[in-house]
Amino acid sequence: MKIGVYPGSFDPITKGHLDIIIRSSKLFDHLIVLISSNPSKNMLFSLEERLFIAKELTKEMPNVSVECHSGLLIDFLMDKDIHYLVRGLRAVSDFEYEFEMALANRWLSSKGVDTIFLMTDEKYFYLSSSLIKQIASLGGDVSEMVPDIVNKKLKEKWKKK
Ligand code: COA
After folding, report:
1. 17 labelled catalytic
2. Which of 5, 11, 17 gets mutated to test ligand 1 (max ligand atoms within 8 A of its CB)?
3. Residue 49's domain spans which residues?
């Protein structure tokens, strides 16, 4: 069985991420969306919230599951004997960061893991979770760029603050 892992902080998950999930789920027998830790980011949504949202959004996708993991990504892959990572690429600016991570993961796995890159849909070229959070925090409308459940949760967050 060919299994792929799509890791990310997904804070929050956007339609751009969802597009990558749908497309990459067709490349594997099973795709795991992995809510991972990124120590260099301050999260708006808790791990539980991100897990809940991702599960809701993928519940109709029969070969997609959602898990979370803290620690090294490569440990998760090695434990489960998984050899493929999926990442989305937007602008050229993503390339250096993604190149570094792909090479590091390949090195850490002694060349046992490869990263497959999918070009983002052009509609989501400039989309990022930070941009969404910034627009939403200032009362802007992000409904075109995030799933309804995320839009609702963002509104709740800023109402509370
Ligand atoms: N559409 C829209 N936005 C997209 C996108 C797409 N197709 N693809 C990426 N993005 C955006 C995200 O919204 C996010 O925006 P933000 O920076 O404003 O939050 C950004 O691109 C990248 O985020 P994401 O894909 O969630 O990844 P990340 O960089 O936050 O996390 C991990 C990367 C989790 C995979 C990495 O940190 C990791 O592996 N962590 C585990 C620890 C580890 O093993 N470290 C060593 C790695 S070599």
Report:
1. yes
2. 17
3. 3-126
